[in-house]
Write a structure and sequence with these properties.
The protein is built from 5 helices and 56 strands. With about 1000 residues, it is mainly β.
């Protein structure tokens, strides 16, 4: 629940793999509609492009030959047993397609027009290919660089411009006396249907298949398809070394067996000046190609075309892609696996990326993609994960692992060494229950984490051997702890700077999720544990969900329980990742102890190995506060040997991946980012119309989001095991402009405020329909806090209350039903509490008191910032009927019925007996939370007569309820609050700080600087 930020349009992102360009011709030109691309490159005798492949059916190649005209066609049909077919080559003699003598030529045909003959001037397409510069007619065969035809010596890599004359739609430029003259229709189709050169362009004599003007009308073009050479979408390049087309020539220049490279760039334009959408690179030869492909620069006579560049002293961004350029097309699947978001473990290929980190040498998995389906010369190599920063690495191309299209292996290995730069910073943050999440707005929006563990081996700028982990975790160096704990060696595993500090990435940044990934942060919630779907059970049989237990009951219940913090919190990252198939970089938490004190989980069943007792306990370690389970490690046993024994029942409570699905409401971009709360990687994005605030069901299976502009509440599936995970499954229209929302902590209702219309809407959880609407005592309501139903706790009234903060500082009280003839509550607002709170901004439920209450952020009479705790201090106990006992069953009007709320504790503000150091750091408190280090989330939510089936977590633990239910040794029910806090955190927007108070003594413990702070969030946030 929070305030709405400014609405700013989100900027679009351009894919790294897409060339910028237009989508085709103008609406009025039929021949320029659709994609502008190369449709054919031909020798006249055979097809060079599109590349071709046999159709794959049932995993077997067939006789049906497909043109590869999309990335999908390539991906669907290329396989180890089905390669891309060789391209056509030129014959060794100067003959035309019908065998008659004539100049060799290359035809490049496009899907759009290049030239509109009859207008007397060259069009945009022609001018993009044929140069009107006199110098180019001498040095570049009359071409611009939009299309290049290069002959390369296969032994020395020396190149020359292929000599010839270019024609676009039969038109060309001719050098006449030192002046370039455009000859439109130098070659055209005669009325009789054959090619002829123009009397005005005698230089065109010798054009393939063209006859003298006025030839016998019975003469037709000399070969089939000759008229295509002068179509308005065709470029033809004719062999010509002596500036005389009448002497028939081949393309083989002075160097025998030269490679002819053909590159069509996106500098080509159509007649509408639209950009060619996809570049093409291919190569062929005159006669059979006797030479293997190689990485460009393999001879040393040219720069080696591996990126990063050989010999460069510049450090390489560890998030970089790499580029490998071959001198001719090679088999794409042999270079490496194509990128896929669903394939996290690409198979190895011809590339090797090797990294040395902390005396550990390892290969990094990668993807290799051709620049596009029309270019198998150039490849982008993308590591499957960002490389570590500041490490030495090599990129190697293995010759024996990749072949050219003709079947010859690459001739030579090539490699380049480089060093990675520091990079953007790797994140390994502590997780709940040892974390407070901080939403940040303003000029540098994002999310930070307050570390309440301090002894984890996460990322940090701390000196590794001097970090709080190295100096303050007593388990470091103890023999027998599995995995072994040692001080870190870099920012990747240095460990925390200590208790009550802001978690850092490996570069020391405290904003762990920031712009441009996220805009203004309006709300944060934690959902299901990540390990329900991200876990090591695929590589460690002992890490099976059948071994994962609730730490209190020992019942098998998969998913990391909120009551258990992993040890260390967090465990260190490892390279290469222990489980790349699920993108898990973290080590498993330490193994569960077999020597723990009575009442804790033990691993007594052989062959579970005993390990030392966890020394990190609150009784002996300074600044380590009580947790629900101490003196015991949490992780699964190590993977068994090979062949593995039958999986023993070695119970564990926490495993990879630690953390939760974290939901960050980005009001600027109208979206909810789903984030890994440990690594802060974005898992998913949920787009909504105008999201304002979020609330979670205690079952963790649903999330409700208010949409301000559309006046709706969206219900989103948040169960990771559901087929509709992260989709909107229902929407309900409510009063105009809904803002704050809260899910009643027993799960039985959803309460929504509409600020501008002064309405409280209560939604039924069964069908999400409106159950009731109330407006009494509401005056610009801002926020609300909702209690559990007081069935066996509180005042025993068997109703729940909602405390609604109004803009004028009053707090209205809603009382639930059921109402009616036998009612016990009014299902309506029953009045306002006695106090008014100046400049109040936020209200939060406080379940730590016997009768329940709330914290409220406001200022005192002197304008000083203050947080007050308000409790129900006077009340009748037991169920109170709303009907009078006598007198015609008259229903009483809404009233407090002898209930009174009072301020019982304050933090900040002026108090004569308090020192000045106890004042808040600022005067605009905007949010407040308590810690949850000690919590009872292992237990079930309370069951009442009104919440059957909607109260408890679908995973069996980690409910978000406000009252948990257990039993004593006699089987009798016991009820408790979900957490026992030690600290109160107060966000102050005017000074950009978070004050931390001892919750019992009201003394200020510390202050953290967080400019732009807007939101504080924990697991049990309403």
């Amino acid at each position: 629940m929070t305030r709405h930020g400014p609405l700013i349009a989100a900027s679009g992102l351009v894919s790294l793999f897409v060339f910028a360009g237009c989508s085709g011709g103008s609406a009025g030109d039929r021949e320029n509609r659709g994609r502008f691309e190369v449709s054919l490159i031909s020798t006249g005798q055979g097809q060079i492009y599109p590349y071709r492949i046999r159709e794959l059916v049932g995993g077997q190649p067939t006789t049906n030959i497909l043109n590869i005209e999309s990335d999908q066609t390539l991906a669907d049909n290329v396989a180890p047993n089905n390669s891309v077919l060789p391209v056509a080559t030129f014959p060794t003699t100067a003959v035309l397609p019908d065998g008659s003598p004539g100049n060799q030529y290359v035809l490049v045909r496009f899907s759009n027009k290049l030239e509109d003959p009859d207008n007397g001037v060259p069009d945009a397409g022609t001018l993009s290919i044929l140069s009107n510069a006199l110098a180019d007619s001498i040095t570049n065969s009359g071409l611009t660089t939009a299309i290049s035809l290069i002959a390369e010596d296969p032994n020395t890599e020396s190149t020359i411009i292929l000599r010839g004359r270019g024609f676009v739609a039969g038109s060309s430029f001719f050098n006449r006396g030192g002046e370039l003259v455009f000859a439109e229709k130098a070659v055209s189709v005669s009325d009789d249907g054959h090619l002829e050169w123009s009397n005005d362009a005698p230089e065109a004599q010798g054009f393939p298949g063209a006859f003298a003007p006025g030839s016998d009308g019975n003469v037709v073009s000399s070969f089939n398809g000759a008229t295509d050479l002068v179509a308005n979408n065709s470029f033809v390049f004719v062999a010509d070394t002596d500036n005389n087309l009448q002497t028939f020539e081949t393309f083989d220049p002075s160097v025998q067996n030269s490679l002819i490279r053909i590159v069509v760039t996106n500098s080509v334009r159509n007649t509408d000046e639209s950009v060619l959408e996809q570049e093409v690179c291919t190569a062929t030869t005159v006669g059979t190609d006797p030479n293997p492909p190689n990485v460009i620069g393999w001879t040393g006579n040219r720069t080696l075309e591996l990126t990063p560049t050989i010999g460069s002293t510049a450090e390489t961004d560890p998030t970089s892609q790499f580029v490998v350029r071959f001198n001719k097309p090679v088999q794409p699947r042999e270079v490496g696996t194509f990128f896929s978001e669903t394939n996290l473990t690409p198979l190895s290929g011809a590339i090797r990326i090797n990294v040395t980190l902390q005396a550990n040498n390892f290969d990094v998995a990668y993807y290799a993609d051709p620049f596009n389906f029309g270019d198998y010369c150039n490849y982008r190599v993308t590591p499957a994960y960002a490389l570590p920063g500041e490490v030495d690495a090599t990129l190697n191309v293995t010759a024996q692992s990749v072949n050219g299209l003709g079947g010859m292996q690459v001739g030579n290995d090539q490699s380049v060494s480089f060093r990675t730069a520091e990079g953007p910073g790797v994140i390994n943050a502590p997780v709940a229950p040892d974390a407070i999440y901080v939403g940040i707005g303003g000029g540098t929006p994002g999310v930070s984490v307050i570390d309440l563990n301090g002894r984890g081996q996460g990322t940090s700028s701390a000196e590794p051997t001097e970090s709080a982990y190295a100096l303050g975790n007593p388990n470091v160096g103890i023999q027998g702890v599995l995995p072994t704990l040692q001080p870190g060696t870099s920012g990747l595993d240095a460990g925390s700077k200590g208790f009550m500090t802001l978690a850092e990435d490996s570069r020391g940044n405290t904003i762990l999720l920031g712009a441009p990934t996220v805009g203004q942060v309006g709300d944060i919630h934690l959902g299901a544990p990540l390990d329900l779907v991200f876990n090591n059970s695929n590589i460690n049989v002992n890490a099976s969900s059948s071994n994962q237990v609730n730490p209190q009951s020992s019942f098998v219940q998969p998913g990391n329980c909120i009551s258990i913090a992993p040890h260390p919190n967090p465990p260190p990252l490892r390279f290469p990742p222990p489980n790349l198939s699920r993108l898990i970089f973290g080590e498993e938490p330490n193994v569960t102890s077999s020597q723990g004190p009575p009442g804790v989980i033990v691993t007594a069943n052989p062959p579970c190995a005993p390990v030392p007792v966890n020394q990190l306990v609150s009784a002996s370690v300074l600044d380590y506060y009580p947790h629900a389970f101490e003196g015991v490690f949490n992780g699964p046993q190590r993977p068994p040997g090979s062949p593995p024994p039958p999986p023993p029942f070695c119970p564990f409570t926490a495993r990879q991946q630690i953390g939760h699905f974290m939901y960050v409401l980005d009001q600027e971009n109208d979206q909810i980012l789903v984030v890994n709360s440990n690594r802060f990687t974005v898992i998913d994005t949920i787009n909504l119309t105008d999201p304002f605030s979020m609330a979670f069901s205690p079952t963790l299976a649903l999330m409700a989001v208010t949409n301000f502009s559309s006046s709706t509440v969206s219900f989103i599936d948040t169960d990771p095991r559901s087929p509709s995970f992260h989709t909107v499954i229902a929407e309900t229209r409510v009063a105009q402009g809904p803002t704050a929302i809260a899910w009643q902590p027993d799960g039985e209702a959803i309460l929504v405020l509409s600020t501008s219309t002064n309405i409280l809407t209560v939604l039924n959880v069964g069908d999400f329909a409106i159950q009731s609407e109330s407006s009494g005592s509401l005056n610009g309501p801002l926020e609300l806090a909702v209690t559990p139903r007081y069935a066996a706790t509180g005042n025993g009234s068997n109703v729940f209350y909602a405390y609604i903060l109004n803009s004028d500082g009053t707090v209205a009280v809603y009382e639930s039903g059921p109402n009616g003839p036998n009612g016990i509550g009014f299902d309506d607002i029953i009045g306002t509490v006695q106090q008014t709170f100046r400049r109040a901004r936020m209200i939060r439920y406080d379940g730590s008191t016997q009768l329940g209450g709330f914290y409220i952020c406001h200022v005192d009479d002197g304008g000083l910032g203050r947080v007050s705790r308000v409790e129900l201090t006077s009340t009748p106990f037991g169920v109170l009927p709303t009907n009078q006992i006598s007198g015609n069953g008259l229903v009483l009007p809404p009233t407090f019925r002898q209930k009174q709320w009072s301020v019982t504790r304050t933090y900040g503000g002026f108090e004569p007996e308090r020192p000045a150091s106890a004042l808040l750091s600022g005067d605009s408190p905007i949010d407040v939370v308590t810690d949850e280090m000690f919590n009872n989330g292992f237990a079930a939510n309370q069951i009442t007569n009104f919440n059957t089936g909607v109260s408890n977590s679908v995973f069996g633990h980690s409910t978000k309820g406000a009252v948990v239910q257990g039993q004593n040794a006699l089987g009798q029910p016991l009820f408790a609050q979900p957490n026992v806090p030690s600290f109160l955190f107060i966000a102050l927007s005017d000074v950009g700080r978070i004050d931390v108070f001892d919750i019992n003594t009201t003394a200020k413990f510390t202050t953290l600087s967080v400019p732009g702070v807007t939101v504080l969030a924990t697991y049990f946030r309403q």
